[in-house]
Amino acid sequence: MHFDARYETARYPSEWLWGDGSPRDALAWLRREQPASDAVDILDRAFLLRFHDDLLYLPRSPDIAAAIGPSERPGIWYVVRADSPVDAFGHLRQALAGGFGCTRRGRCPRCPVEVIEAGSWQSAMDLVARSGVNVTRREVPDLRVPFGRVMPRWIRILQGSWDILAEATA
Predict the structure, then answer these.
(1) What is the CA radius of gyration of the chain?
(2) How far apart are the C-alpha atoms of 104 and 98, rounded to whole Å?
């Protein structure tokens, strides 16, 4: 119901393939490129989540996280294994806010999530590469396709609770 090229927001892996342009341009691209169908793993996926200045950002795929610029790298990066980005984000939100007994490292006794490591952006990228995940740096446009309102890309974590605060959109 919501797509964000820079963050994981869909239950199943999704990628930005083409754009922008008219429907006619899209059809011409599809005929010219003829992208092959593919299969993807939907279980035990690796997600990277950034926590910086009390803000927890939505999960990113390793490929998208590898392409971010230096201004987006500060903070603590969590490498999380989960079946969906919603599971990864919900778990880390609770763990950072100190709720529901969720853990900041290791397998959570309450959620279908495992926090593998927390550290710098570089240490997170190194861990993902060492774990056998094939990381291909992927730069994508800052593009969102909302269903209704634009979904915020982060929430502010307060001690013992959390508040959703939408970021300013340009």
Answers:
(1) 17
(2) 9
Residue with the two structure tokens 């005929």: 31
* Cα(5)–Cα(22) distance, integer angstroms: 19
Transcribe 71-82 into DSSP letters.
GG--SEEEEEEE
Q: How many CA atoms does the CB half-sphere of 165 hold within 13 Å? A: 12
Q: Is 48 exposed, middle or buried (0-12, 13-18, 19+ CB in 10 A)?
A: buried
Q: Are 32 and 24 in contact (CB under 8 A)?
A: no
Q: Which of 25, 154, 37, 139 is nearest to 92 (CA)?
A: 154
- Among residues 39, 155, 139, the alpha carbon closest in space to that of 96 is found at 155
pTM to 2 decimal places: 0.81
Is-contact 49 88, C-beta < 8 A? yes
pLDDT at 10 over 80: no
Angle among Cα 85, 87, 90 to the nearest 5 degrees reads 105
Domains of the chain, residue spans: 3-163
Contact call for residues 82 and 114 (beta carbons, < 8 A): yes
Report the mean per-residue pLDDT for the chain: 85
